[in-house]
Design goal:
Order of helices and strands: EEEHEEEHEHHHHHEHEHEEHH
Largest sheet: 6 strands, mixed
Number of helices: 11
Radius of gyration: 20 Å
Strand content: 15-25%
Length: 292
């Protein structure tokens, strides 16, 4: 498969990425099998069912592959950094400062013994030589940027004191506090109520658009929800059994899927969406009849 390219200047280049883990028998099992794509300052959705390799792809880019995992590629380039050859210290500097990751459930990602604001301050001071006062002001700005009302109050709250939606917004604020060039969002709305999912997606979209004023930012959204990526992404890649089957502009993929697996996904999600709309119409009609 030819490498799916973006029309934007390339920020990330992934070529023939392979991630393997040892089995109980001792042999290596590939969970990512020759994935290739490029990413510019845009929103790319990586979609696939559980076990398709999409999260492992994101973790390999971040340098967060689980112990025992082996990462190989012909090329894994982020800006001017070769991610395959750089040492652990460079990787740590990249994470948080130039690339960041948001996971699906803030309960397991946030430090329960630190306030929300203190965690953002810690991130800022780890990557920038700023005073505690400057870091606090930047943290408050970051909380305001993710549309949290009364950032000064939320700054002092602990993770258990906030809702799931607010916790996820705080996670995004922390990830974006250092203005990274790449944000990987791995199932960022799965743990949220349906009503909050669209809000978080709109927030990420607005933040990516706003980032153009300070150099631009790429967002890689990893999800199993095809309807979500249609709403959010400018391009979509479909993964199955560790392989990237196709990657193209969003509407083109939905209108003209090339692979049979993608075609089945598109049609199944379309039928599911139609069924949901019909159920909603029946509910509205029933409520109207009960009022008469």
């Amino acid at each position: 498969m030819n490498m799916p390219l973006t029309s934007n200047p390339t920020l990330l280049e992934v070529k023939d990425l392979r991630v393997s883990y040892p089995s109980r028998q001792g042999d290596l099992v590939e969970v990512v099998r020759g994935v290739s794509f490029t990413l510019g300052k845009e929103r790319l959705g990586l979609v696939g069912e559980s076990g398709s390799g999409k999260s492992q792809t994101g973790r390999a880019i971040m340098g967060l592959t689980a112990p025992g995992g082996q990462v190989q590629a012909q090329r894994l380039q982020f800006g001017d950094v070769d991610l395959l050859s750089c040492d652990a210290a460079v990787r740590r500097q990249l994470r948080g400062r130039r690339m960041a990751m948001v996971l699906q459930d803030p309960k397991f990602s946030l430090n329960p013994v630190m306030s929300m604001g203190a965690q953002i301050v810690e991130t800022l001071q780890r990557h920038h030589e700023v005073s505690a006062r400057t870091a606090r002001e930047r943290a408050l700005d970051a909380l305001a940027a993710v549309q949290i009302d009364n950032p000064r109050r939320v700054f002092d709250l602990y993770p258990h004191e906030v809702s799931g939606g607010m916790g996820q917004r705080a996670m995004i604020a922390m990830a974006l506090a250092c203005k990274p060039r790449l944000l990987i969002a791995d199932e960022p709305t799965t743990a949220l109520d349906p009503g909050l999912r669209l809000q978080i997606l709109e927030l990420l979209k607005d933040l990516q658009e706003d980032a153009k004023s300070h150099g631009g930012m790429a967002v890689l959204l990893i999800t199993h929800d095809l309807n979500m990526v249609r709403h959010f992404a400018t391009r979509v890649g479909v993964m199955h059994q560790g392989k990237l089957l196709e990657c193209k502009p969003t509407e083109e993929l939905f209108m003209h899927p090339e692979h049979a697996y993608t075609d089945s996904l598109v049609h199944s999600r379309s039928e599911e969406h139609t069924s949901e709309l019909q159920s909603l119409r029946h509910l509205v009609c029933r409520l109207l009849l009960e009022k008469k």
